[in-house]
Known about the structure:
The longest helix is centred in the last third of the chain and has 22 residues, at 267-288. By secondary structure, the protein is α+β, with helices and mostly antiparallel strands. It is elongated and about 75 Å long. The protein is 43% helix and 15% strand.
Amino acid sequence: xxxxxxxxxxxxxxxxxxxxxxxxxxxxxxxxxxxxxxxxxxxxxxxxxxxxxxxxxxxxxxxxxxxxxxxxxxxxxxxxxxxxxxxxxxxxxxxxxxxxxxxxxxxxxxxxxxxxxxxxxxxxxxxxxxxxxxxxxxxxxxxxxxxxxxxxxxxxxxxxxxxxxxxxxxxxxxxxxxxxxxxxxxxxxxxxxxxxxxxxxxxxxxxxxxxxxxxxxxxxxxxxxxxxxxxxxxxxxxxxxxxxxxxxxxxxxxxxxxxxxxxxxxxxxxxxxxxxxxxxxxxxxxxxxxxxxxxxxxxxxxxxxxxxxxxxxxxxxx
Length: 318
């Protein structure tokens, strides 16, 4: 079961093992998480022991006779249950069984599906930008909504918009076999036909400086993802939605990094280095995409032209 630590809601294998060492209740909790996660509750409830053993113990369940052992235990303990605060016996029936089952579910089910996740958010008032480290637009929207609520609605955000769409800019770079100044094109790309069929071509660990890529673009496919490197310092994947994925600081950045602090596990140093690089990368990427869209540029310049004293985060891009 150790292989499933992440699906069962733990931060690591050790965290799961430490939790199970707390006692029988914790072990039952983990078992229930696995049962529900793998949709084996119906098999267990109906006494379909072969199906349950196959899902719980694996395809070699018959070698160890797990199904017959469970069936025998159900028959052996049929009708015998502990007090309502005790353990529910498989195969038992009646009102008291239902009471025990309801008590166990009421106590353990809320803990069977914990959601533990951290989302990093970087507010950069000087650049009038907010960065959200989320894996999807939906998650980013949820974080931004919560952030606005916490700040009493005083934060006004709009998605970053550039004069050139990322898809059209990436198509030009690939067709011309030339990256924008300060950037290089790496070895990962996805091209997709913008129609109902959504025909796609994906290159992974493959040079993109080939005529075949240009042919796909000339036939109507547009890039949806493109791996790039900025200044030999930061690699990332640019998407058609103007999001950056797989951001990685390269060795040249990390070689001169200060030593991590003892109290924060290096968090402060990591944040300082990462934000310092991204603060330099983003203006160059925006420039490569033709600069800010004229409407957004005008909106950002308006407060300064009017001599506004509003806080710098009252109008920022995300």
